[in-house]
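PIPK domain-containing protein (Oryza glaberrima), 364 aa
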Amino acid sequence: GSRRIWMWTRCLRCNGKPTQRVIISSSARNLSFGKFLELSFSTHSAAKKLSTCGHLLHRDCLRFFGMGPKVAMFRYSSVEIYSAFKPPLTLEFHNPNKRECLEVEFNNVLRKWRLLFSEAKNKVQILKSGDSGQALGENTKASVHDELFLEVNRILAQQKNEFETFDLLVKSGTSAHGILGLNWLHQLLLLGIYIWDVRLQHILQYETRTNFMVMENILFGRNIIRRYDLKGALFSRYVLDSKNPENVLLDQNFIEDMRAMPIYIEGKTKNLLERAIWNDTAFLSRMTVMDYSLFVGVDKQKKELVFGIIDYLRQYTWDKQLESWVKTSLFVPKNLSPTVISPKEYKIRFRAFMSQYFLSVPDA
């Protein structure tokens, strides 16, 4: 009798006594326990089975399985299934107010642009006047500075003309073009403020050049409750203050959260996620790029996982190879690998992590 598996239930809605124990049939015992649970809980017929009290067996009852002194209890609980949303190939716009709303925003941005040009021009004149006074008697230095100021004024005039031309093109376009143009003007304004600030600070020094890359904000307009930066590495990838919703959490936080409050996606959604990751990582590996991340945002309201690969500009140069060797030799535990490894190894580890820790359920 010690090898027999007994089964009984207790209804939570009735809060009554447990039912009489019954022995699991020999045909059921021939199944694996996992398969038996799947047939008992996951099928459409199982969802309609009633307990002796008339309540649903799989939803309203605790189910017990015992063998000898050991007892396992199962309780039904529903899970939220998320879909995955990657950045779209085509941008679509639906704006009921159309051009009226755009004109207000455009005028606001135009006013800030013209203010930037005016302040930059005034600042150049002030610097030029002060520099002319200090450079009296130094003809060579004065000549060099005059050329520099002429070049700065030329750049200022050129950018102002380009801005006015771009403004006319945007206003004559469609609503979609207007929204794109407005966003572009916003981005250019932020960059313009910074660049002119740097340019004016270094106007009497050597010319410098700074490159920027503007990326899409995939979280715009969403109710994001959790956000993760995932590299597929475990060493030194944990944020202690994980309760702050504004913090970007890392790989070890993600594993911890998936155990405590898992997020499930359908099988077809996981296939979409994996296919996108496979294609992108194959390309990045060919370009000898590593140290990139999968940025994931959890949109509770829409029940969507918003994801995209970020930080994909770092190639596996000699300094990164040296960093990998030093960390592997001195700091990283033997059973873990450092964040920085070769592009091929990085691709394999990245894919394996995403496949393992994004939990899927069978398609409905």
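The first strand starts at residue 6 and ends at 11. The chain has ten helices and ten strands. ok done for today
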